[in-house]
Specification:
about 120 residues; three-stranded antiparallel sheet; RNA_pol_III_Rpc5
Length: about 120
């Protein structure tokens, strides 16, 4: 209990790192081996992250891959560059093999994968 009290007393008006919000967290012992927490400590809170579209987990290798959709209608998005990247990754349509799956379905860099 002393740790909780120390955390509250450290949150003085002159504190360099004030507590902004407290959220109760309930952890299940049954799920503790399957729980993943992703944090983005370098992103400001005003910079909203897009939704994760797909998540791939390999528990034996302890790896996770998150597929995040890009905002292609943003005025800051460079369509020409996105098309160029997709072309370099997947190759020209006329040279693709029929059985080869393309990475960018819309011939446009419209997603990013985080590992």
């Amino acid at each position: 209990m002393d740790e909780v009290e120390d955390a509250h007393t450290a949150n003085t008006p002159n504190s360099d790192d004030p507590v902004i919000k407290e959220i109760p967290v309930f952890l299940s012992k049954r799920l503790e081996d399957q729980l993943y927490l992703f944090q983005y400590p370098l992103r400001p809170t005003t910079n909203k992250l897009p939704d994760v579209k797909k998540c791939f987990i390999k528990p034996n290798n302890e790896t996770v891959k998150l597929e995040v959709q890009l905002d292609v209608v943003s005025p800051n998005f460079d369509i020409g560059k996105a098309e160029d990247v997709a072309l370099r990754v997947d190759g020209p349509a006329e040279h693709r093999k029929r059985d080869k799956e393309v990475f960018f379905k819309n011939n446009l860099l419209d997603k990013i994968e985080y590992f």
